[in-house]
Specification:
Elements lengths: L3 H19 E2 L17 E2 H13 L5 E3 L22 E4 L3 H14 L3 E4 L15 E4 L6 E4 L4 E5 L4 H8 L4 E2 L10 H6 L8 H4 L6 E7 L5 E5 L4 H6 L9 E8 L1 E2 L4 E9 L1 H17 L6 E9 L2 E10 L19 E2 L2 E3 L1 H7 L9 E9 L4 H14 L5 E8 L22 E9 L5 H21 L20 H4 L2 H14 L14
Helix pairs in contact: 1-2, 2-3, 4-9, 8-10
The structure holds flavin-adenine dinucleotide (FAD).
């Protein structure tokens, strides 16, 4: 087997050859429309930063170029969120992560930070400059005495659940496999199968260990660097890079109920719509949860219903709303939490051009759900669409009562909803971005026309498209505080060398 050291030397050699033979002193061309790995010239600043990083990092960390062995295809859920970096740094220690950020700051090199790669926005965790991959921060540990779980920022939720399986404990995290803990937490998240019981992951976060923009190490919690702790729960990558999260552990039954069900055809989709509206209206207090996805794949109308209940059968008046529907696949069953999450085939939709948008609602009416089903069916037949999908997620009224103050305000009784479209042709990118944005606005207007007061509903940054206005995501007082904190914590605007919603 090739050792990491050999790969490191190889990477350095290739990097220096790149510097010698392919430097272009102008900025690199936009590569978003080029096939992956077809980039020509690269930027001098990025190359010099990569060369410095490859010499300075310790043996346990890696600096690799895309022309060596880094698996680009596997990096992001949507290929439109990927770019070919000049080099990718995989720091293995907090000190190497700090040194990496210091080098990037000194060179003023463009960079990005990637954890699970599930953002729908290009540039948020990809770059043609220096990519910092957190994948080597992959430790997961449970302390039963303190009832706390600590995990590295590079792990995905399914690996956390697999590790906790059989311990009798669980954490509030993502609902399908593959989602990274890094973006999920820092983007204000997140919504979990455990949210009706324990709130959002942000409400269960105890502390974080991170590298500040100036390259120093810091710990933040309610009692230590409290402003920073507030800011990283919804402030994205604007305040530094978190490498470790410590969260509350909750007792978890060995067996739970749920999984996924799929129905196809108009008649069945209508039944799912009625059941979803009924569940949303009636399931105000129970721990049962669903996500109904109304979508059209290759023009076929379809409904997918994901469900969870922390016991072997859900109480009457909750999931039984979905009885009597003719399912093409019925995967609701008694199983472990980890197998429930892994059973949901979300990765089947991975690897396509795509994008997210969001809207918020306080109730899910039948007319709105019917409009959604009709719209995704129509759009599903146009412009190289492979999937047009809207996820509706009703939560119990217990949720706002558990909300703690955080940069992303989730204290209202609004529910974040996700629009996800996927397509094949790069020529259709502009068309689909417009459809996503327009549909988000239409559904918001529809909810308001139904009488829903959305004045305290803020769009969830983790579902929001890159062009979303800051005022749509943050209350004015949170935005003002974020701006002040950012100026204090990052006066050199180091994190401005990467991309996220900017304040
Ligand atoms: C299939 C799918 C399922 C999803 N399910 C859920 C769900 O159940 N609940 C929910 O709330 N959301 C869900 N989401 C949304 C998800 O929370 C966001 O996409 C989130 O950003 C993913 O995090 P990531 O680490 O995978 O993404 P990445 O693309 O790696 O990162 C996203 C952003 O966070 C930044 N970032 C990542 N790690 C760090 C860090 N350690 N320090 C500082 N900045 C960091 C990156 O720089 C980037 O800007 C889902 C998304 C998809 C595509």
């Amino acid at each position: 087997m090739t050792s990491p050291i050999t790969l490191r030397v190889l990477a350095q050699l290739i990097l220096f050859c790149s510097i010698a033979f392919s430097v272009n002193t102008t900025a690199s061309p936009a590569i978003s429309s080029l096939p992956l790995q077809s980039r020509g010239a690269v930027n001098t600043t990025s190359l010099h930063a990569c060369a410095a990083l490859s010499l300075s990092s310790s043996a346990s960390s890696l600096v690799v170029t895309p022309f060596t062995f880094f698996d680009l295809a596997d990096q992001h859920y949507m290929i439109t969120s990927s770019q070919v970096s000049t080099c990718t740094v995989q720091p293995a220690t907090a000190q190497d992560l700090a040194a990496t950020l210091k080098t990037i700051a000194a060179k003023r090199a463009k960079f990005a930070v990637v954890a699970g790669g599930h953002t729908g926005n290009q540039g948020f965790s990809s770059t043609d400059g220096v990519l910092i991959s957190l994948e080597k921060f992959n430790e997961i540990s449970l302390d039963k005495n303190t009832q706390q779980v600590t995990y590295g920022a590079g792990v995905t939720w399914d690996t956390v659940y697999n590790t906790l399986e059989g311990t009798g404990y669980n954490v509030v995290g993502g609902r399908v496999a593959g989602v990274g803990v890094g973006g999920y937490h820092t983007g204000g998240g997140g919504y979990s199968w455990l949210s009706n019981q324990f709130g959002l992951a942000a409400d269960n976060l105890i502390s974080v260990d991170m590298v500040l923009p100036n390259g120093t190490l810091a710990t933040a919690s309610e009692s230590n660097n409290a402003d920073l702790f507030w800011a990283i729960r919804g402030g994205g990558n604007r305040f530094g890079i978190v490498y470790s999260f410590t969260v509350k552990a909750h007792p978890q039954p060995a067996q739970v109920y749920g999984g996924y069900r799929i129905a196809i055809g108009d008649a069945n989709v209508q039944k799912v719509i009625s059941a979803t509206a009924k569940f949303a209206a009636n399931n105000t207090a129970s721990a049962a949860q669903i996500i109904t996805t109304l979508n059209s794949e290759l023009g076929i109308p379809r409904a997918i219903v994901l469900a969870y209940y922390p016991g072997t059968s859900a109480p009457a008046g909750s999931l039984d709303a979905f009885d009597g529907i003719s399912w093409l696949i019925d995967g609701w069953k008694v199983q472990t939490f980890s197998s429930l999450v892994s059973s949901i085939p979300s990765n089947l939709q991975k690897g396509q051009r795509g994008g997210f948008e969001s809207f918020a609602v306080k109730t899910l009416s039948v007319p709105m759900l019917q409009y959604i089903a009709k719209t995704v069916a129509t759009l599903g037949k146009s412009h190289s669409a492979t999937l047009t999908s809207i996820e509706v997620e009703p939560f119990a009224s217990t949720l706002p009562g558990m909300a703690k103050s955080a940069a992303w305000d989730h204290s209202s009784n609004a529910w974040p909803q996700a629009i996800y479209f996927a397509w094949t042709s790069s020529a259709d990118d502009v068309y689909w971005r417009k459809q996503l944005v327009d549909l988000g606005k239409t559904l918001t207007a529809m909810a308001q026309a139904e009488g829903q007061d959305l004045s305290d509903a803020y769009l969830y940054p983790n579902y929001a498209g890159a062009g979303t206005a800051l005022s749509a995501m943050y209350p004015p007082e949170n935005l003002a505080r974020l701006k002040t904190l950012r100026a204090e914590i990052d006066p050199q605007n180091v994190m401005g060398l990467t991309t996220w919603f900017d304040f």
